[in-house]
């Protein structure tokens, strides 16, 4: 099972290589992840950066956690 974010307004989705619980954590604490990203030189995990880019692009839209087989 794969989990990802789906923008209900644009009908776009991403499927980062991570768990549903980590995706739930990120969407609830997006501001924390952005703050950490701004202060680290090593960067964050690829899935976090991919998800943050998606959330930035779809800022203000309705984003839901989705799953696919």
Structural commentary:
- It is a single chain.
- By secondary structure, this protein is of the alpha+beta class.
- It has one domain (2-68).
- It has three helices and three strands.
- The chain has helices spanning 20-28, 30-39, 46-57; strands at residues 2-7, 13-14, 63-68.
- A three-stranded antiparallel sheet has the order 2-1-3, with helices on one face.
- Strand 1 and strand 2 form a beta hairpin.
- Helix 1 (20-28) crosses helix 2.
- The longest helix has 12 residues, at 46-57.
- It is globular, with a radius of gyration of 12 Å.
- The termini are close together.
- The relative contact order is 0.33.
- The mean pLDDT is 92.
**Strand residues, percent:** 15-25%
Radius of gyration: 12 Å
Taking the sheet with the most strands, its summary is:
3 strands, antiparallel
Number of helices: 3
Q: pLDDT under 50 segments (min length 5)?
A: none
- The overall pLDDT, averaged over residues, is 92
Topology order in helix (H) and strand (E) letters? EEHHHE
Strand order of the largest sheet: 2-1-3
Total domain count: 1
Overall geometry: globular
Care to count the β-strands? 3
Q: Percent helix among the residues?
A: 40-55%
Q: Report, as a whole number of angstroms, the end-to-end distance.
A: 5 Å
Structural class based on helices, strands and sheet pairing: alpha+beta
Key attributes of the depicted protein:
69 residues, alpha+beta, 3-stranded antiparallel sheet, 3 helices
